[in-house]
Design a protein that fits this description.
Layout lengths: L6 H9 L14 H11 L11 E6 L2 H8 L7 H6 L2 E8 L6 H4 L6 H6 L2 H25 L3 E5 L4 H8 L4 E10 L15 H4 L4
Antiparallel strand pairs: 1-2, 2-4, 3-4
Helix pairs in contact: 1-7, 2-7
Length: 196
């Protein structure tokens, strides 16, 4: 095998990692979340835009509001996960570019005039960061249950604002014994990779 990452780490992050549907009661701490973020913030985005914004749903009242906005099949998982995160794209990410991309002073102005261009770029780059976040959750020894089955307009209204577009809701915690569905098939490399 030509990977530098050892086999146990490969298993933790990819081969043995699964989307969890049930979790134990063990809490996910603020320190764990901080460690996850401190790792995944280094994942690349275009022009270092870093548009992902994370809303942690910890209070019972907020959890109840969120559960009501989830698709029916996702409600029990979201109601019982130790921690739930709403991952959103900040469509005003360009305001941070003077800090994040300082060697190009015109970066902010490049995006300042077009909300549509910002939304497209924010969605793509925040989705990249959402994937990094899921891998970071796995690196912390936890399981993630990412979901896109929810009322996006409702989640934006209840938890965000007009400048933030919700991308996914992620349940986070230690997986329970019955956490997994059988693994679905994957495409083989010859179905995906083309050499020209």
């Amino acid at each position: 095998m030509s990977l530098v990452l050892d086999s146990a780490a490969q298993d933790l992050l990819f081969r043995e990692a699964r989307t969890a549907n049930t979790f134990t009661d063990e809490p996910v701490t603020a320190e764990q979340v901080q460690s996850i973020y401190d790792l995944v913030k280094y994942g690349p985005t275009s022009m270092n835009q870093s548009p992902l914004r994370i809303t942690l749903v910890r209070s019972a009242e907020a959890r109840e509001r969120l559960v009501g906005l989830m698709s029916e099949g996702n409600r029990p998982k979201t109601a019982t996960a130790p921690l739930v995160a709403i991952l959103a794209a900040d469509n005003e990410f360009h305001e941070e570019l003077p800090q994040l991309f300082p060697h190009f002073p015109g970066a902010k102005d490049m995006f300042g005039g077009s909300r549509e261009a910002r939304e497209q770029s924010a969605a793509l780059n925040a989705a990249l960061q959402a994937a990094y976040f899921i891998i970071g959750v796995r690196a912390a020894g936890l399981a993630a249950g990412p979901m896109t089955g929810f009322d996006s307009v409702g989640v934006q209204k209840e938890f965000l604002d007009d400048d933030h577009t919700p991308l996914m809701v992620v349940n986070i915690g230690r997986p329970a014994e019955d956490a997994w569905h059988p693994r679905n098939p994957r495409l083989e490399s010859d179905q995906v990779i083309t050499t020209v």
